[in-house]
Amino acid sequence: MKTRFLIVMGVSGCGKSSVGGALAQSLRWDFYDADDFHPPANVAKMASGTPLDDSDRAPWLASLSELISSSLKADKPGVLACSALKERYRQKLMNGNDGVQIVYLKGSYDLIWSRMEKRTDHYMKPHMLKSQFETLEEPKNAITVDVSMSLDEIAQDILKHMEK
Questions:
Q1: CA 6 → CA 66, 89, 106, 162, distances in Å?
Q2: What CATH number does residue 74 fall under?
Q3: pTM of this prediction?
């Protein structure tokens, strides 16, 4: 089955939004950032330094799953930047939809921490990175890309994998 939707996943600060945006532009697909779909209560919770729990994530994941499903039904391919740290979250997002491919942006704690320390415009603070790595269940069936490369190299690597 041909890929018609990408879920670009990984811990906060790994480059999901940047990579997802670059891929969407290159593929001429719609781009969605899962952060934009969080209800205000979730954003406030994370901004206060409290990690989300599964009950916080459930309605958010349901809305993202519906976004993917409706996009595919409308024949509108897309790219979603979403943490999707646990296997069950990814299963919820994919929800039996054919043509969805997971892209895992993998990087070391130290590299991602250094990137997070430099950003000032995000509610996810660097001290919460530890909980992200603790929650992370690395995907088995994904295009896995090393985030120590440049944005262009990462995007090109993913596009090459998609062509196979």
A1: 14, 15, 16, 10
A2: 3.40.50.300
A3: 0.91
Q: Structure tokens of 164? A: 């196979």
Listed residue (135, 95, 132) closest to 116, CA to CA? 132
**Phi, psi (5° rounding) for residue 127?**
-65, -15
Q: What is the pLDDT of residues 70-87, one digit of tens each?
A: 999 999 999 999 999 999
User: Is there a contact between 144 and 104 (Cβ–Cβ < 8 Å)?
Assistant: yes
Provide the domain limits for residue 64.
Answer: 5-163
Cα separation, 43 vs 125, in Å, equals 12
The number of distinct structural domains making up the chain is 1
In one-letter notation, the amino acid at residue 99 is G
Q: What are phi and psi of 132, to 5 degrees?
A: -65, -45
